[in-house]
Design a protein that fits this description.
- The protein is an alpha/beta fold.
- It has 2 domains: 7-171, 3-Layer(aba) Sandwich (Rossmann fold); 189-250, no CATH class.
- Helix content is 33%, strand content 19%.
- The chain is built from 8 helices and 8 strands.
- It has a 6-stranded mixed sheet with strand order 2-3-1-4-5-6, with helices on both faces. Strands 7-8 form a two-stranded antiparallel sheet.
- Strand 5 (119-124), helix 4 (131-142) and strand 6 form a beta-alpha-beta unit.
- The longest helix is centred in the last third of the chain and has 16 residues, at 189-204.
- It is globular and about 55 Å long.
- The structure holds guanosine-5'-triphosphate.
- Residues 15, 17-23, 36-38, 40-43, 64-65, 124-125, 127-128, 154-156 line the site of guanosine-5'-triphosphate (GTP).
- Residues 7-174 form the Era-type G domain.
- Residues 41-45 are annotated as: G2.
- An essential GTPase that binds both GDP and GTP, with rapid nucleotide exchange. Plays a role in 16S rRNA processing and 30S ribosomal subunit biogenesis and possibly also in cell cycle regulation and energy metabolism.
- It comes from Megasphaera lornae.
- Monomer.
Length: 252
Amino acid sequence: MEENQFLSGFVAVVGRPNVGKSTLINYIVRQKVSIVSDKAQTTRNRILCIYTDAAGQIVFLDTPGIHKPKHKLGEYMDAAAYQSLRDIDAVLFLVAGNEKKGPGDLFVAEKLNACKVPVFLLINKVDLLTKAEILQKITEYRSVYPFAGIIPVSARTGDNVATVMGELKKILPPGPQYFPEDMVTDQPERVLAAEIIREKLLLSLREEIPHAIAVYVDEMKKREKIRSIFGPPCMWNEIRKNGLLSVKTAVF
Ligand SMILES: Nc1nc2c(ncn2[C@@H]2O[C@H](COP(=O)(O)OP(=O)(O)OP(=O)(O)O)[C@@H](O)[C@H]2O)c(=O)[nH]1
């Protein structure tokens, strides 16, 4: 390969619900493009998140957590996750290091057998583990799949995320810049606004609402740096009543 050739490619981020896929991607692109909560299956759709630097461009596919579907919404989300395993250059398979390796993780590993590209295992949430526990996790997972690499990381603190980026750059092919360098996601602003509101609702209303909540933004008006967001009155009443959003977040 010629030196200084621009590298690019697509990388799917998979794992069972709640292991930290969205947190990792937000850290990499340094912007909140995917919402995070401690409720499983917060991410509903496949979201493209784009990292660009002088050496290359990596397009990450944030997928809904893969699990054995129990309902229609789950089935749809799993289909979105499997779809992202096609036409990609690498897979980042995340597991939560602070939890036991369970049937959920093995179920995802089984699905990876279908893909022919390098799969890196990221043992996430190592900020909650001792060094000895990290080593034990690495040993535990070694036999699960012929991983191209096993990397302990913390998506929350960013620990070792640079190593992941370095490994990806080693295997990405020379290629074009698919997206403009200042673009970090394929999601329109209105969808991002709705998602951030959904995240606040999920974080603040634990028992009161079902986790299958949907947020719809009726209208967004742009006035210089200010966006005004309009939604159904019942949603705003709920938000106001519970003090869910600061003015800065609701009108940004
Ligand atoms: N301590 C710690 N917590 C983390 C880390 N990464 C993620 N979390 C937390 O784990 C929870 C789930 O994180 P998400 O990023 O929403 O997980 P996800 O895999 O995208 O979840 P789904 O959308 O359900 O598939 C959140 O409460 C995060 O703050 C980490 O490195 N350390």
